[in-house]
Every structure is written in C-alpha cells, then in structure tokens.
What we know:
Distance between the termini: 173 Å
Structural class: alpha+beta
Number of strands: 11
Shape: globular
Strand content: 25-35%
Number of helices: 3
Helix content: 10-25%
Radius of gyration: 56 Å
Amino acid sequence: MTRGVRCAVAVALAVVLAGGLAGCEEGVAKAKPQESGAAATSAAAEPSGTTTPSSSPSPSGKPSSSAPSTSTPPPSTARPTPPAKPSTARPADGPELPVAVTVTTAGGKLVIRGGGPAQEFTVTLRNTSERDYAHLAIGLTMEPNWGEGEGEGEPGLWPITAERWDPASRTWRKADIVVAGDVAVLYVTKGGTALKQGAERTVRYRIKATAPKPSATTGLGVDAVVTDVPEETSAQDRMAGYTHVPLTLNKS
Length: 252
C-alpha cells in the first residue's frame, strides 16, 4: 500500500471514530436524567425516618381524649309517680307528736269476754315537747263493731264500759268511750289536768263487756287531747298524742 492510500485510510478511520464517540457521549447524556429521576422517585417512596408532627397535637404530649357524645338518650318509658292525695284520716302517731302515749296491759293485749270480769290497763302520758299543757285529757275511742255474723244497723253492738281509777277517793269512776270511726273524740273530750314539759302522768283504767255477743276483733284508741282551745281548732292541733291497742272480744 502506498503512503497516500494509508493516509486516506487513517483519515477515514479518524472520522468514523470521532462520530462514534460523539454518539456515545450523547447517549450517556440522555441516560443521566433518567437515572436521576428514578433516584428521586425511590427517595420519595422510602420513609424518611423522622415523624411529621400532627396538625392538631394533643396538649402536653398526652393522647387526646375522644369528644363527648352528643347523642340524645332515648326517652324513659317509666310512668311518673302521681302526686299523693291529701289525707283526711286521723293524724298518725309518731315522734312528731309532742306527747308520747303508752298503754300497758296484762300480757301485752286487751282481751275481754262478754259478761266476764273487767281487764285493767294503764295509760301513761309523757310530755316530750318544749311547752307546758294547762289542760290535757285522755280520750278513749273505738270503732263501731257489731260482731261476727251481724249486720250494721242491727242491735248487736257490744255493750262495753270503761272506768277510771280515782286515787283521791280510791274508787272507780265512769270513763267515756266514744264509739266512732273518726276524730269525734277530739271534740267531745273535756276537762284534763296540767302536764308540764318533761313530766309524765299515769292513769289506771279497766274495761269490760256487760253482755255476751258474737266474738269480734277491734281496737281501742287512746288520745292525749288538748281541751283548752277554741271550737274552730283543727283536729291536728287538738291531738297532742295517740296510740292504738288491739282489742279482742270473746263471746265466752
């Protein structure tokens, strides 16, 4: 090969190599942005390892409590209790009454037999109030009782009498028993003696049935009655104390 030919071949090879190197550099330049983008995507997908603070942090770093429920509870199905009606019955005995009334009997009960002997009992009044009574009397009462098997209105009412022991004359004196189912005894009882605060008084009584009648069970009411009051005074203000004793009536 001649020297001229060699020079031509050398120049051609140089041109070819220059073009190839330029193409490779362009390819490398184009590939680099893709690698950079992939790396950025990968970095965004990986967790950073630091905690991003919440947009609504709880105070002092403590877990926030759940908000109170605003739901309305279902309405109750229980019926409301109706108001109590005013009572027209006798005022009940109890600690609210200023005079304590105690009845003492043989065996703790009153049992009498028609035509039989009288049974004694005592009534003790104790003034537990902060006032003095000038006239305080004992009233005895019992509800009408016609005995077993007899109808109301028939002449079957037990003929019961009561007596009170008078220590001054040392004799038994007649005592009234008011037969009524209401507070009449508080209006018809009269007399009475003084009973100062803190004092007490005991009275002896005896009760009997003068004739046999069918057996029955009733009760004897014992009232401490304030007698020195105006006529318009209510039953509640007249009654200073009260108790009730079961009474058994035996025919024989």
